[in-house]
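Example 9 (inverse folding). The structure is encoded as follows.
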């Protein structure tokens, strides 16, 4: 048996449930896992589980670690390779990236290929595959997968959930498909699948300085809206719901005028808009909402949303998850 640490790649289109899966892994896995994420601020870890916290990492009492994926993948993996106290490392891939492009990093010294998992939103996957702007991106992600986790099946009638699973199987015949809502059952199913993988240490060679993919030539545009002034809830809902075919993702934490002392998680994807109270603000946390759009009107739509939310200031987005 190899002493190399399995390195699992986690991909999936914007809003497919990657962050929810990361949270579930960190809180429910029986293994000691290090998770490298694109958007560290979006991972909402229960404060009771945190042992130590820094600006770009959180260490949990159960031995798990969540940290930000730096510009250099090697710079992030190198210290983890030498620690020896993790059972698995999971790397989250950009929501518009092809996880196959990061597969060579599974051969980084000290690591072994540990599976390539792609999340897919059961309610949105059909529309996404048919979309003229993002369909190729979503199809490439599915074709790279060894396992597809079909998320949000609990929000659909049984027949629609089965149709989504069949659609994924047709698009990605090489992959196993696990259809289940988030929570303990999905984590148990994922870990059974990961545990059944053969030992692949040394199966791939690391290519010289491969570069993480962030969408290639696809017509994506992103924008970050920042500011401490509370935002009107109804105006926010109208702004995000106004361009459903162009706006692909909105994600972040804001202050709302009806609850300015509360930290509200804002998430918009193909499944719609969700606003969740995540407790009181603490420390130096800054409200921020990252928007991602696709298509010829992408930049115009982002500018339209920014204009509808004058409490926030627009600036370039740091990442695409």
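The amino acid assigned to each position is listed next.
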């Amino acid at each position: 048996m190899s002493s190399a640490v399995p390195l699992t790649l986690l991909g999936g289109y914007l809003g497919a449930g990657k962050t929810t899966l990361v949270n579930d892994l960190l809180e429910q896995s029986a293994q000691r896992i290090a998770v490298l994420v694109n958007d560290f601020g979006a991972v909402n870890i229960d404060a009771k589980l945190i042992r130590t916290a820094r600006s770009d990492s959180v260490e949990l009492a159960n031995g798990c670690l969540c940290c930000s994926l730096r510009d250099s993948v090697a710079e992030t993996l190198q210290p983890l390779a030498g620690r020896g106290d993790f059972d698995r490392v999971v790397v989250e891939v950009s929501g518009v990236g092809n996880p196959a492009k990061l597969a060579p990093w599974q051969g980084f010294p000290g690591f072994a290929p540990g599976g390539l998992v792609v999340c897919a939103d059961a309610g949105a996957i059909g529309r996404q595959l048919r979309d003229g702007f993002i369909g190729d991106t979503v199809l490439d992600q599915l074709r790279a997968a060894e396992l597809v986790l079909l998320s949000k099946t609990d929000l659909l009638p049984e027949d629609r959930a089965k149709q989504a699973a069949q659609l994924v199987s047709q698009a990605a015949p090489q992959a196993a498909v696990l259809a289940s809502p988030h929570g303990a059952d999905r984590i148990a199913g994922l870990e059974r699948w990961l545990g059944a993988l053969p030992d692949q240490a040394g199966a791939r060679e690391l290519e010289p300085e491969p570069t993480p993919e962030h969408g290639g030539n696809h017509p994506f545009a992103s924008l970050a809206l920042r500011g401490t002034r509370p935002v009107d809830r109804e105006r926010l809902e109208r702004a995000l719901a106004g361009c459903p075919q162009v706006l692909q993702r909105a994600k972040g934490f804001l202050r709302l005028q009806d609850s300015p002392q509360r930290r509200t998680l804002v998430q918009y994807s193909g499944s719609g808009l969700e606003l969740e109270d995540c407790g009181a603000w603490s420390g130096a946390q800054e409200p921020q909402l990252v928007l991602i759009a696709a298509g010829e009107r992408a930049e115009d739509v982002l500018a339209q949303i920014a204009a509808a939310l004058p409490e926030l200031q627009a600036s370039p987005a740091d990442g695409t998850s």
